[in-house]
Each structure stands twice: as structure tokens, then as C-alpha cells.
Amino acid sequence: MEGSNTQINPWSFFDTVINWITSPLIQTATVSFSLATILGFFLIIVLAWWISAKIENIIQRFTKGKAYKHVDESTLYLLSRLLRYFIWFIATLMGLSYMGLNLSGLAFLGGAIGIGIGFGLKNIFSNFISGIIIISEKTLKIGDFVELNSVTTGVVAEIGLRFTRITTRDNVDIIVPNSEFINGQVTNWSYNEKNRRIHIPFSIAYGSNKDLVKEAALTAAKRVKGAVIDHASRQPDVWLVGFGDSSLDFELVIWVDNELMSRPGKAQALFLWELETELTKRGIEIPFPQRDLHLRTGKVKIDMETHQLTVEPRG
After folding, report:
1. Residue 190 host element (H or E)
2. Which of 57-71, 181-195, 241-255 shows the lowest per-residue confidence on average (mean pLDDT)?
3. How many Å apart are CA 186 and CA 181, to the nearest integer?
4. pLDDT tens across 175-232, in order?
5. Domain C-terminal end among 101, 120, 152
6. CB–CB of 199/251 below 8 Å?
7. What are phi and psi for residue 188, nearest 5 degrees?
8. Measured distance CA(87)–CA(52) in Å, rounded
9. Do 270 and 208 fall into the same domain?
10. Fewer CB within 10 Å of terminal CB in the chain, N or C?
């Protein structure tokens, strides 16, 4: 009996798998999609996302806190973020080309995207463009103290291409769409100046020595860390601003640094604390509401238990 030898190809399994992967799943007159092309497209997108994220992190890590001529941290942030989006865009085109799509047909896709922006993506696109304008024009910088509509105040913690994150002094993060900084009124207290003049109101009793009051206020100002007292053209001053019902009304007018400027409540509390100390040292009375009673006829009775005052006509 003659036996027959069957020769098995060890690569037949791999050939079968390769043929299955490369076999068209969707085929038309112009394009042909297989599992290999779909996997290749997603692989290109994932690699592009990973590479762009790494490049952005490297740029921001090496430039954070460093000063370059004509280039600040916000501009470098914008460049790194735009570079990331550019890598995504190029990788998407490469992936579509790898899948066999005719890129000349992207004109139709661009028109569809334009329609989408006009209807559903208008606000997102507006915030995106506003973010580029904010960073490129440098109207906002990280660390600026800003005020929105006289309600929201805080420090700029992050400037993105879609939103800006404002952190209040209570450590509350407020996400503000970038378009609000372009279309609305924004007060940037540290836009081009790191010092700001503030007014601290206080009152003293009538009859007090005004020169002594000024001396006490200026001494108190020097004891607050962050007060600008050594600048020739920005010396602190004390103004008499009004005659109240029970007091002389003064204001301590003083320049402060960025730290106190961005903490207006804390700044006022620090100055008032030192003011009270210095006024007390000099025996200057801090007034309280008082009323004078002029009685032409009758008599006055005061109940010492209830502290009630009664006026009785003269009988």
C-alpha cells in the first residue's frame, strides 16, 4: 500500500487572515473600504493625537515661567495649541487619503461644515475665534485681575481657545466663553500696570486734630505689606472728603501691588486694621451715631431698666 504525503503550508493561516483583513467590506465605483484601511485610519488618528499632545506638553513645560523677547507665555500657549490642531488636521487628511478617499471632494465637506457652523456650531466657532483674538492681541494674560459686568471678579487662571477660566478669591472656578470678552465690557485691573490706587474710607469724631489723623493713616499704610510707599510719584495721601452727621469723613488714598490689587476685600481689611491701631494709639476717637435733644417745655423720664425715654409735658 502506497502512502501519500500531504504537505502543509505553515503560512496558509496567515495568508487567510491577511486576505480576510484586506477584503473589501464596502466597495463602490470610486472607493473600497476594508478592515485594514479602517484600522489604518484610526491608527493614524491615535498616533497623531498622542504625538500632538506630547509636543504641546513639551512646549508648555519648557516655556512655563520663562520670558522670551517679544513672546510671552500666552503666545506660546496659543502656538502650541494651534500646532496640536494642525497636526490633527494633517493626520485626518492622511488617514482619509490612506482609505482611498478623493480629497478633492473635501470642498463639499467644507460647505457642509460651513452650514453646520451657521446653524448649530455658531457659538463654538465664535468662541474659538475669540480665543485666538484674545491671546494674539494680549488683552488678557494669565494672572490678570479682571472684572466682568461689575459682578464677577477674579484672576485669569487659564486661557483656552473656547473658554477662559477665572478663579475667584474664594477658589471658585468660573468658566467664561471667550466671546464674552470680545463682545462685552471687561475691566482688566492689571492690563498694562501692576499697581493700582485704592481708596480706604474711614471716619473720625468732630474736633479731632486733622494733622494727627493724617500722620496716623500714613503710619498705618506703611505697616501693610504690598503698599507702594517708596515710589516718588505714587506717595500715599489722606483726603478729607466730607462732613458726616456725626463724623469727619476721610480717605486713605494709596497705591498697592498686584497681590493686594487682586484681593480688594483683604486689602481694605488690612488697612482698616492698622488704621484702628494707629488712631487708638493717638487717642483719636472713632465716632458713633449721636443725636442732640433740645427740650423747650416739659420733663424727661428715663427708665433705667428698659432704657426707654419718655417726654412729659409740663403740667
Report:
1. none
2. 57-71
3. 6
4. 888 888 888 888 887 777 678 888 999 999 998 899 999 999 999 999 999 888 888 8
5. 101
6. yes
7. -105, 100
8. 6
9. yes
10. N
CA gap 149, 135 in Å, rounded: 21
H-assigned helices in 194-238: 210-222
Do residues 137 and 156 touch, judged by C-beta distance below 8 A? no
Nine cell digits for residue 255: 497705591
Contact 72, 159 (CB under 8 A): no
94: three-class secondary structure by DSSP? helix
Cell matching residue 284? 483719636
103 confidence band (pLDDT: 50, 70, 90): low
d(CA 255, CA 275): 16
> Do 97 and 164 form a contact (C-beta atoms < 8 A)?
no
**Residue 71 DSSP class:** B
**100 phi-psi bin (left φ>0, alpha ψ -120 to 50, beta other):** left
> How far apart, in whole angstroms, are the C-alpha atoms of residue 179 and residue 184?
8
Average pLDDT, rounded, for the chain:
77
Query: Which residue shows C-alpha cell 502512502?
Result: 3
Containing structural domain, residue 182? 135-188
How much is the pTM?
A: 0.54
For 106-185, where are the E strands, in sequence order? Answer: 145-148, 152-159, 163-167, 173-177
Residues counted in the chain: 315
What is the CATH classification number for the domain harbouring 56? 1.10.287
Per-residue buried b or exposed e for 53-68, using 16+ beta carbons within 10 Å of the residue's own CB: eeebeebeeebeeeee
